[in-house]
Design goal:
It is a single chain. The longest helix is centred in the first third of the chain and has 31 residues. This protein is an alpha/beta fold. It has 2 domains: about 80 residues, Up-down Bundle (Four Helix Bundle (Hemerythrin (Met), subunit A)), CATH 1.20.120.140; about 220 residues, 3-Layer(aba) Sandwich (Rossmann fold). An 8-stranded mixed sheet has the order 3-2-4-1-5-6-7-8, with helices on both faces. The protein contains 18 helices and 8 strands. The structure holds guanosine-5'-triphosphate and magnesium ion (MG). The site of guanosine-5'-triphosphate has 24 residues, from α12.
């Protein structure tokens, strides 16, 4: 063999060895290191609901104009909140946007604090666009007409007082004297009375992105701090990251989570969670649900089924069925409340994102037009940003 052929043979041999070694290394990394990861992906893909059903699900981004909340975002928010000593958020500060918008529009109707004779229609229009609800506006207008003289109606201050006192009356009719005095979430949810009554089940429902899972995290923390044994149940089996999101909150609140990895049926999760919490002597189990549009009857039926199976374990459960409403949805919240109430009878509402909304007036419409009390309010994304709804404070702060 001459020198050239010898070199050629050596090069070919080296290339063959490199090729074989490369293939071995590739397969080692592909199947040696990534096997568990691939299995996880496969498992999570199996958990995905069929494409056609997924397509029927509402897209939270379309409804709320917001991306799907990610676990990373949660952690980011947490670090911001824990790094700065944020001042305590009150109903008064949360209502600042609602108040500013309401007040400035009311003021613009008045000419130097004097309502011109034929401006009552403009006043009515301001009330209509303040998300109070149409019947509520009628009632407030009647109160202004009945309570104020012609001269008084031209006085901005008098009109504001008449609106506020009528709102207070609306709330007191619903609350029968109770709700105006609540000062804490524990009091709102009767946690001290719940002692010794056996397992309490709270079902949390609402449209996509309203703030259900976040509210559950905040609630679980408050309930756990009050000394109760709390479990949260991952009843949202549809959105891929929903279980992980609830897990982050359960870790923060240091409460137990019920989240079986391979169960796709939310009713099965609800049933098993309640049965397990009962067997393990928990005080409270809070069941998360997937976001759904109130107009999608098959998804509302799914909610009815969850409600039914919970009753199979504890006939009087759920003890609370709370509708989470994004304050930004304004008057649409009234329609959501009506439809959800027909499917699963609601015990109250949680009005979230009040901190960024100018549409807090909807709480009055919910009370008057649907007899649905707002029980809690969300005033931020952090753990401590859930407050009890005190109607007296609300009326004092709205105008
Ligand atoms: N500013 C503010 N943001 C909130 C409040 N409550 C929830 N959020 C934010 O709203 C977004 C949606 O909250 P989630 O709790 O995931 O809503 P969800 O109803 O569980 O959503 P789906 O499960 O997709 O239906 C998140 O970015 C939350 O941080 C609140 O009271 N104030
Ligand atoms: Mg959720």
């Amino acid at each position: 063999m001459d020198h050239t052929s010898q070199s050629f043979m050596i090069i070919m041999a080296v290339l063959a060895v490199v090729g074989i070694a490369g293939t071995v290394v590739y397969y080692f990394f592909r199947f040696g290191f990534h096997t568990d990861f691939d299995k996880d992906i496969e498992r999570s893909q199996k958990r995905e609901i069929p494409q056609d059903l997924e397509e029927q699900r509402p897209d939270s981004k379309k409804i709320t104009g917001m991306d799907e909340p990610g676990v990373e975002k949660l952690l980011e928010v947490e670090s911001i909140l824990t790094s700065s000593a944020a001042p305590e958020k009150t109903i008064d500060s949360a209502l600042s946007k609602t108040r500013e918008s309401f007040f400035s529009r009311l003021k613009s109707v008045f000419n130097e604090s004097q309502l011109s004779n034929d401006d009552l229609e403009s006043l009515e229009e301001v009330l209509y666009t303040s998300d109070l609800g149409p019947q509520t506006v009628q009632r407030l207008m009647e109160a202004i007409n009945d309570q104020l003289s012609g001269e008084e109606k031209r006085n901005l201050e008098k009109v504001i007082q008449a609106i506020k006192s009528e709102m207070a009356r609306i709330f007191s009719e619903l609350e029968e004297g109770g709700g105006q005095d609540v000062q804490s979430v524990e009091q709102t949810l009767g946690l001290s009375e719940a002692a010794g009554q056996g397992l309490q089940v709270w079902l949390i429902v609402g449209v996509n992105g309203a703030g259900k899972t976040t509210t559950i995290g905040k609630l679980a923390n408050i309930v756990a701090q009050s000394g109760k044994k709390v479990m949260v149940a991952a009843g949202d089996t549809f959105r891929a990251a929903a279980g992980d999101q609830l897990k982050v909150w359960s870790e923060r609140a240091q409460v137990e989570i019920f989240s079986p990895p391979d169960v796709k049926d939310p009713s099965a999760v609800a049933f098993d969670a309640v049965a397990s919490a009962k067997a393990k002597n928990f005080d409270i189990v809070i069941v998360d649900t997937a976001g759904r549009l109130h107009t999608q009857s098959h998804l509302m039926q799914e909610l009815e089924k969850m409600n039914r199976v919970i009753k199979k374990v504890i006939p009087e459960a759920p003890h609370e069925t709370l509708l989470v409403l994004d304050a930004n949805s304004g008057q649409n919240a009234l329609i959501q409340a009506k439809q959800f109430n027909e499917a699963v009878s609601l015990t109250g509402a949680v009005l979230t994102k009040l901190d960024g909304s100018a549409k807090g007036g909807v709480a009055v419409g919910l009370a008057y037009e649907l007899q649905l009390p707002v029980r809690l309010i969300g005033v931020g994304e952090g753990m401590d940003d859930l407050k009890s709804f005190n109607s007296r404070e609300f009326v004092d702060s709205i105008l």
